[in-house]
Amino acid sequence: MSLTHDAAVSPSAGRRFRAYTTKHLDELTVRAGLGAEERLAVRAVANVLPFRVNSYVVDELIDWDAAPDDPIYRLVFPQADMLPPEDVGRIADLLRTDAPRSELNRAANEIRARLNPHPAGQMELNVPKADNDEPVQGVQHKYAETVLFFPKQGQTCHAYCTYCFRWAQFVGEPDLKFASSEIDQLVAYLRQHPEVTSVLLTGGDPMIMGEGVISRYIEPLLQVETLESIRIGTKALAYWPQRFVTDPDADETLRLFEKVTAAGKNLAFMAHFSHPNEMAPDLVHEAMRRIRGTGAVVRTQAPLIRTINDDAATWERMWRDQVRMGMVPYYMFVERDTGPKDYFAVSLARAYGIFRDAYKNVSGLARTVRGPSMSATPGKVCVDGVTEIYGEKVFSLHFIQARDPELVGVPFFARYDENATWLFELEPALGATRFPYEVPSPADTSALADPARA
Ligand SMILES: *Cc1c(COP(=O)(O)O)cnc(C)c1O
Q1: Which InterPro entries match (predicted)?
Q2: Is residue 36 part of a domain?
């Protein structure tokens, strides 16, 4: 492909990256038109949950006339009511009285600990062992064919999403972090585990790394014959498309992508888009053209988030625009059970309705998308529908992905619950006493119907 710059990008495209953090929050919330009390409450939330935005998101993506209701504003700015009022009040009082940093941190840590910082056992489960029985740092191996790798220098993002399920990694608590700078350990592990065909670089956002750093992770992987694909989970196309067009290492980055495809592996660029407005700027189209030109395949995924993208028209537009731009819709996720989950949660019943209402209107090219999908401890569970079987209203579900591969693709049922927002709130249906992924209790070895439940 040609790596010369195209001119069809906005004048701000070449501007240097500038991050805004909690220090700058007050001037930005003034711009959004918030009053003093609310601004203090927003600052209080930003002392518990991570906040970071950048000049591109502020200048090009947010519609300030529509703030604070603008979906992109809501995507990156903390909301005063994202946390319980007593927690917000406690931090706000400390801020108001200029309490010492140590006191503020102590209060913030107490609140964080109550927000299920590590959903689905991320820190303890699925960490593989090397030959010498030492854990392979920064690696998560939950599903046989795919390994997640968290490069140490990739543990931040160009901006933070308010709903991020990895929020705990961004709040400066060393024991909440999970990362590695050791690519050699991963390569050794892959050589011992030829069943692993896909490595997913994640974070944070691996595209926060410059080409000189990310290439040191990717190039060794090209030598692993059994590896079929390298995935990069990233929101850079939405939050900093300059990374692929005008940044000093943009061209080198595209050459790195070309090396992956030339090595006979799929470079799967897993783009996180939460809202169609993120795909509107010319710069994103230009970045997308350049990435496609390397032979990489761009697939898209995002969670369904209340107040940001919880309507079918938004998803329909997003999937249609993605197909137009050459992207492949991949997953619609259910918001995970962590952080300000209660604030952003959409019930499974509503999530299914939104998915279906969008899905039924798009061409088969966009129906590569799967969801709504819950990434839970036993695996990724898809809500296929709501139906009635012998008079009982049920959710029909299946595992898209499972720790136990035998469960993949097998339908199972849960009692319909209008308010349930996550797998563990569901109960087995149709007389079953447990879900297929649950170990039978000693008293239930036959897994026969339990009359007490019927
Ligand atoms: C989603 C996920 C993967 C990848 O699963 P695919 O269905 O292949 O996209 C791998 N590991 C973990 C822990 C995941 O959550």
Answers
A1: Aldolase_TIM (IPR013785), Lys_aminomutase/Glu_NH3_mut (IPR003739), rSAM (IPR007197), rSAM_sf (IPR058240)
A2: yes
